[in-house]
């Protein structure tokens, strides 16, 4: 059964300073429990702000390291999940359910990609 990586992209400038609401966390917990019991969810996590991150670049035969925040990026990866679904359509359906849990003021984009195997 194929595995899918879903990258959650957010605009860090429009994320509530206090983080997700308790109601959102409760809805998210219920969905994660359902998706885990269905045997679909393999792993998921949110990521710390880009101010805590670093980018390592290989260019022209040289390595460089740049510490965050990455102000040139409007959207950053705020979280990810790895799921095992029968096909891409199922992975997208689970992703739609996850995004729909959020309040209207959130702007989130999810990129669903199948993990290449063999």
UniProtKB/TrEMBL annotation:
Cited InterPro entries: Dimeric_a/b-barrel, YCII
Family: Belongs to the YciI family.
Domain of life: Bacteria
Classification lineage: Bacteria, Bacillati, Actinomycetota, Actinomycetes, Kitasatosporales
Protein name: YCII-related domain-containing protein
Span of domain YCII-related: 10-97
